[in-house]
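Technical note accompanying the year-one report. For the benefit of new consortium partners, we illustrate the data format agreed upon in the data management plan: each record pairs a sequence with a structure-token string. No post-processing was applied to the example shown here.
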Amino acid sequence: MSAEAKLAELGLELPPVATPAGAYVPAVISGNLVFTAGQIPLVNGQLMATGKVGAEITPEYGKEIAQRCALNAIAAVKAAIGDLERVRRIVKVVGFVASTPDFTGQPGVVNGASELLGAVFGEAGSHARSAVGVAVLPLDAPVEVELIVEFE
């Protein structure tokens, strides 16, 4: 089953790629790798939530937010390479979680992104990962996700 068919089966649709908020592009190709810019949880141009995980945002909702960030990153990959069937492997995921100083569940939050990538790309979605707690993210987003993807 194709990646886009798997997305549809999950009830998800790739969104349009967000217009960058600064002097950068959504994704860059170098050799056979695509590097996405950090993707925040935009839905129709609006953040789905703001605040910190461990305060205004529960870890469970943070996981949903991370999934949306990954969906936005997949859209950036498709825009860069034209067809998700060209994806050979999700190489690396970096997830940033704006969280309270005492919150230590960043890996569980970023699992939202990792689990979506596994569901969409199967074995090719298995990746290395970092889950980093930070004080604040752009526009007060709770989560930001970036990908490195190998393609053919």
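Partners are asked to follow this layout when depositing records. Helices lie at 3-9, 59-81, 106-121.
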